[in-house]
Amino acid sequence: MTRYSVAIAGCGPRGAYHAEGFAANADRFDVTACCDLDVGRAEEFARRFGIGKVYSDVDAMLAAEKPYVFCFATLPDVRLSLVELGIKHGVKVIAFEKPVATELAEAQQIFERCREAGIKLVVSHQQKYGPHFQAVKRIVESGEIGKVTKIHATARPWLSQLGTHFMDYMLYFNGRSPVKWVVAQAIGTGMLTDSHPSADYVIADMEFENGVRGIFECGAHAPHFVPGENPLRDIKFWTDSSITIHGTHGYAEVTTGNGYRAFTRNSQGEMIEGDGNFNPSYEQPLYIRDLADWLDGKIATHPCDGDIAYHGFQAVMAMYMSALDRKRVDLPLAEIPQGSLIARLGETLPHSDEYQGQ
Ligand SMILES: NC(=O)c1ccc[n+]([C@@H]2O[C@H](COP(=O)([O-])OP(=O)(O)OC[C@H]3O[C@@H](n4cnc5c(N)ncnc54)[C@H](O)[C@@H]3O)[C@@H](O)[C@H]2O)c1
Fold first, then answer.
1. At what angle do helices 58-65 and 80-88 cross, to 10 degrees?
2. Inter-axis angle of helices 13-23 and 39-49, to 10 degrees?
3. Which of 208, 207, 168 minimizes the C-alpha distance to 306?
4. Of 50, 74, 196, 212, which cross-links 10 as Cys (Cβ 3.0–4.6 Å)?
5. Does the pLDDT value for residue 218 go beyond 80?
6. Dmax over Cα atoms in the chain, in whole Å?
7. What residues does ligand 1 touch, defined as CB less than 6 Å away?
């Protein structure tokens, strides 16, 4: 079995989860080096995961290590520049964090240039590996809720934080049928200057190619699905996101921080319920295992591959385009806007902080 070499950049909390994932699949991957602008952080990371070489410059690391897989977990302001370094040094795979970019034009550069270079991409929308997500996936695929008619996704954290996750999960539960069009509204400017720039609240209606309808609510006015106190940026806030798949004979619902429930044609009038919570230490090894299986040709594609991530990103950014231009936006986008949609939201939306007081 091939063992793929890996170099990791970004030694923060998310970099550590990726390292855990590779360590759990040490028979398939060999992490040879790590890198952070903060070299102290990189050294501590190397000690923790038994990584042999430490760098503070990605260009130097990739030049010296020539890894098969380049994994990076930085904040969203650093994406294209690192992808360009991966292309320059001939890596075969880039595994990176959501959101794939902060703007559509940047995402277009990332995905088109990697496609041209033959680089495989995976994006960490890994919550789908949680046991509660998998239980709902099995219920939906078994046909117990009948034919899927509507998918309703909600997330309290803002769009570039959890919205890209939940758009991805809508596509996942809908068997990757692409979004055909979106009609959306966006309000609130408080999070436009966040590290994950977003409107404070976005609501969208959409249709998928297979006729299923979707509703997406993300941000300050999305409903709560995790009970109890849930203040902004507290731990429970980050897991207050949910997806409900409605069918002709029932429904199934999974909440990141609150298990799953389903009412199906076989549940004899009772609610099926089960546990599950956000646990990257559980999810990341499975996501990395699928990466090995994809590279080995054992599975046709990775459930978090670049194609689905780019489509999901187009869908959420199309929501901003719909809100800004007050029109339906069809996908795939015929033309990718080259200007900044975030700047346009700042110029166009009435100024308000929709999270204030919540
Ligand atoms: N998939 C998930 O479930 C999930 C959960 C939380 C966060 N995230 C995402 O993970 C990403 C990273 O989050 P984090 O909390 O680990 O961030 P962080 O800021 O704590 O860590 C990022 C690290 O990257 C380093 N870095 C930045 N630019 C660099 C460069 N050019 N070269 C080398 N190192 C560089 C920084 O010095 C920092 O140590 C974000 O995009 C966030 O949205 C994903």
1. 30
2. 30
3. 168
4. 74
5. yes
6. 62
7. 9-15, 35-38, 41, 58, 73-76, 78, 97-98, 124, 126, 196, 280
* Rg of the Cα atoms in the chain: 20
358 pLDDT tier (thresholds 50, 70, 90): confident
Query: Closest Cα to atom 25, ligand 1: which residue?
Result: 10
Q: What residue type is 157 in one-letter code?
A: P
Token digits for 285? Answer: 């090894």
- Ligand 1 centre from 275 Cα, in Å? 29
Q: Which domains does the chain have, with CATH numbers?
A: 4-97 (3.40.50.720), 128-282+311-342 (3.30.360.10)
Q: 218 with 354: CB under 8 angstroms?
A: no
- Write down the pLDDT at residue 12: 98
Tell whether the torsion through CA atoms of 130, 14, 304 and 149 is positive or negative: positive
Structural contact between residues 321 and 337, judged by C-beta atoms closer than 8 angstroms = yes
**DSSP designation for 32:** E
pLDDT in tens, 219-250: 999 999 999 888 899 999 999 999 999 999 99
